Amino acid sequence: MTTSPAPSRGLDPRSPRFGAAITTVLLALDIVLTLNDGTRTIGIVLLAVIAALFAWGGLAGIARHPYGAVFRRLVRPRIGPPAELEAPEPPTFAQRVGLVVTGVALVLALIGVPYAAPVGAAVALVAAFLNAAFDVCIGCLMYVWLVRVGVFRGRSSVA
C-alpha cells in the first residue's frame, strides 16, 4: 500500500491520519448531538458537513482536501518530510467510502429513520479512529483488495 513515487504523485501518509483524527472528533460530537433531541438538528447539519468533506476528498482527490492543506501548512513544517510517500488512490477511495456511509446515514435521517444519523456516524467513527490511532485505513485496505481481485485497475506499485 505504501510506495515511493515521484513527489508529485506521492502523498505524505501522515496527512490522511491527521484528517482522520479531526474526523474522529467531529463524528464523536455528531453522535452526541444527534442522540439528544434538543440538538438533533445541529447534529444532522454537522453530518451533512462531514459528508461534504468526504465528498471533497473523494471527488477532488485526497491531495486537495482542506485537512491536507492545514496539514501541509501548519503540521508538516514542524515535523519534517515523511520517510516514504503513499499512493493517493487508496485514501481517496477511503474518502468515497466515508461519503457513502455518511451520505446514506444523512438521507435516512432526513427521511425520518430513527437513529440513522448516530449509527452511520458511529460506523464512520470506527473507521476514522482506526486510521488516526493505529494507521489502519479500512477504505485503503478495501481499495487494495479490489485492485487485487480486478475490480479496479491500480498502479502496479499499489497492488
UniProtKB/TrEMBL annotation:
Membrane-traversing stretches: 42-63, 97-117, 123-146
Any Pfam family matching the protein: DUF4395
InterPro entries attached to this UniProt entry: DUF4395
Keyword entries, A-Z: Membrane, Transmembrane, Transmembrane helix
The keyword Phosphoprotein is assigned to this record: no
Domain DUF4395: 12-148
Protein name as annotated: DUF4395 domain-containing protein
Organism: Curtobacterium salicis
Lineage per the UniProt record: Bacteria, Bacillati, Actinomycetota, Actinomycetes, Micrococcales
